[in-house]
Structures are given as structure tokens and as C-alpha cells.
Amino acid sequence: MKGHSDQVRKNLEFAQTTWGGLSRTMLQGLEDLTARYRLSVALGDIQQIDGRWYVTHAGLLRIAQRRRCHAIRTSLQKDVSDPITSRWVFKATIYKTPSSRGFVGYGDADPSNVSTLVRSSEMRVAETRAVNRALRKAYGIGLCSVEELGWLSEPSKAFPVARSSNASHSPNGSNNGQPRLRDRLCLLIRQHNLDPTLVKAYAADFCGTQTLKDATRDLVESFLSHLSSSAKEDLDGLICKLNSYAQPVEVKQ
After folding, report:
1. What is the Cα gyration radius of the chain?
2. pLDDT values of the chain reduced to their tens digit, one per residue, 253 residues
3. Please, are residues 126 and 114 in contact by the beta-carbon 8 Å criterion?
4. DSSP string of the chain?
5. In 3-state terms, what secondary structure has residue 215?
6. Pair 107, 132: CB distance under 8 Å
């Protein structure tokens, strides 16, 4: 089928451009996932992390939409949640049809199992994880979701990336079919074990703005390309550059 072959080609090309150096096994896996679930790399449906493919929340929702999911319901499990310690547990139920008995998934989150980038967002992370697990169960998706890993569950508050005033906004938070800039930035930070605070300072300086949130989308896109190239070509040099943005420690007399 022409539509299928076009999607496979686009996914392979975009994956190679985004991550580069993918093994033949990884590319074959991506081709299979494209055929089976119609996932799109460009739309952010799937991510490659440490040599494995992971589906995203946006990808799971698109699968559910294509298969005409009837309803998604979530509920906070108050008896096992603890607001004082920021521990939250949610139950999600997926109804594939009006008469479906429902597929249930649970999601939990607390400061010990989420990234520091999403601290204080544990409640939303827990609900997202519950929905993802229920969707994977309902539609027989064996891939683990990115959000269940904890490090990319929500856009980081540390990187308030601005969008161009004329950009179109889609419900999943991406513009013009591209993955969210915050997600791409967090991915680079994790892949190369970079310091988020120093990257934020470097990004603002690179974009010539007081803070990163003041930068246009085009400037942030340029910074992401620069950061990715620098990390691949000279990681030690990049770390040295980042360290130059570290605030000096005051020594009290």
C-alpha cells in the first residue's frame, strides 16, 4: 500500500535525521511499529531512548482516536494517595465501545519515581501513567510509554519555551506536526547527562534573550540543533562551555 510505504519512508528518514546511527535492528523495529500502529516519528508518537523504542502519550491517544475509543475515565485513588508526601495514585478505565466493560490501568507517582524536571507535577504524571497503561492494555500495545519512565512525563518548568506568534497550535502541544521543543530539549539533556540549569542559561545566552521563554521558536530550534551537534562532536567541549555558566559559590568570611 502506497500510504503505508510513504509513512514508513518518512519515519525512517526522520528517525535517522533526529537520532542518527540507528542499527538495522532498530530500523526494522520502527518499520514494524509503523505498520502495526501507524505511529509517526515527526508527530512525536514514538521516541528512541538508549536503543529502544517507546510510545508517547500523544501516540497512544492517536491510536485510541483512530480506533474510535468511546471514553476514557480517570479517578484519584484517595485511600492510597498521600498529598503530604506528594504520592498520587490514579485509576484509568478505557471503554472501547459503549457496551465495553472497560480496560483498567493504574498509575502512581511520587518524588522518588519522577525526574527532578517534573517535581511538583506528580499528580498529573500519575494520571498520565494510568491512562497510558490502560490504553496499552486495551489495544494490545507491548511498548512501554515514555511517561512511565518518569523523566519526560510533562514539559519541564525549567524550560518555558516560547512559540512564535504566528505558529499554529495542535491539542498535543506540538506545532506544525513537530515534537514539542521542551520534549526535544529534555531528551538531549538526558541522552548526554547535561545539567539542566546550565543548559537553560546557555540557551538564553545563545538566543540573545534575558530568559529562554523570551526566545522565538526559530531561535530555540537553532539552539537545539547546535546543542545536538556539539554533544555528538565534542561532548567534553560542550560540558566545559556549560560550566562557564555556573554561578560562583560565595565564601563567607
Report:
1. 20
2. 555 688 899 999 999 888 888 899 999 999 999 999 999 998 889 998 888 899 999 999 999 999 999 999 999 999 999 999 999 999 999 999 999 999 999 999 988 888 777 778 899 999 999 999 999 999 999 899 988 886 544 443 334 444 333 333 333 344 443 456 777 788 888 778 888 888 888 888 888 888 888 888 888 888 888 888 888 888 888 888 888 888 654 545 4
3. no
4. -HHHHHHHHHHHHHHHHHT----HHHHHHHHHHHHHH---TTTTSEEEETTEEEE-HHHHHHHHHHTT--EEEEEE-GGG-BGGGTBEEEEEEEESSTT---EEEEEEE-TTSS-GGGTT-HHHHHHHHHHHHHHHHHTT--SPBHHHHSSSSS--TT------TT----TTS-STTPPPHHHHHHHHHHHHT--HHHHHHHHHHHHTSSSGGGS-HHHHHHHHHHHHHHHHH-HHHHHHHHHTTSPPPPPP-
5. coil
6. yes
Cell of 94: 478505557
